[in-house]
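To make this tangible, this section ends with a sequence with its structure tokens:
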Amino acid sequence: MPKHNATDLSVIYDIRPATKYDEFDGHIRVIKEQNHWSQRFMRRLGVKIPLRSYKELDDYGTFVFKMIDGKRTIHEIGSALSEKYEEAGDQLYERLIPYLEHLERNEKWIQKK
């Protein structure tokens, strides 16, 4: 996988195939299966652990997540974001790039193409 400079606005992201999500009340909701061996074991002991958990994205996160399609660059996503949300234009890429990097590195929901 190629390395990209963090300020390179031509980077393209795609949603990882393993990422499960749906749309709920107009927001993207990422679904995480609670299927670790320890969770299964605790369920057998009677502990109530849900089969899945959800992370619901806010308006900005939902908009950005929907723009990630394996074709759009960071620049294109940022331009569309600033068109939709006028207030997003302030420090747009200073916020957008770390957010995308967080989704890639920490959440592991997206990947660079």
Q: What stands out?
A: The longest strand covers residues 27-33. Strands lie at 13-15, 20-24, 27-33, 52-56, 110-112. Helices lie at 37-44, 59-67, 74-84, 92-105.
